[in-house]
Amino acid sequence: MTSLATRRRFMVTTPFFVVALVAACSPKSEPNAPMASTTPMPPPTPATMPDAVPNTSPTATAKLPMVDEKDAQAVALNYVDNSAKADAKKFKAYTAGSQCSGCALYQGKAGESAGPCPLFAGKMVTAIGWCSSWVKKA
After folding, report:
1. Fewest CB atoms within 10 A around its CB: which of 82, 91, 97, 120?
2. Each residue of 39-54: pLDDT tens digit?
3. SS3 (DSSP) at 21
4. Is 110 part of any domain?
């Protein structure tokens, strides 16, 4: 009978030990941690925002470097500085008259010789350039 009583005691007390073990091993919050502020945060300013997205404002685009045709990204996208140099036989996606300035991804202003492109983050492409990701502007 003692083995039955011992087994019963084990079955009754085990869940309490498991709960105590989980509670002891769980992460604890700091008792002196600052509470979340109830006052609204001011909107982020350019000075406080991270530089995850390159600044493409008109003053910043003048400072951006040009894409080199030999860059790894440019080679992968078959980028050429002058669309007239694009070989229609080699680049099946090329159509006559397609240039960066007519691409939906091109972010330069009309009439500029170069502008930023999100495919080449932090760099500018020539308006008369072309790459295999060219998509006609709507």
Report:
1. 97
2. 666 666 656 555 545 5
3. helix
4. yes
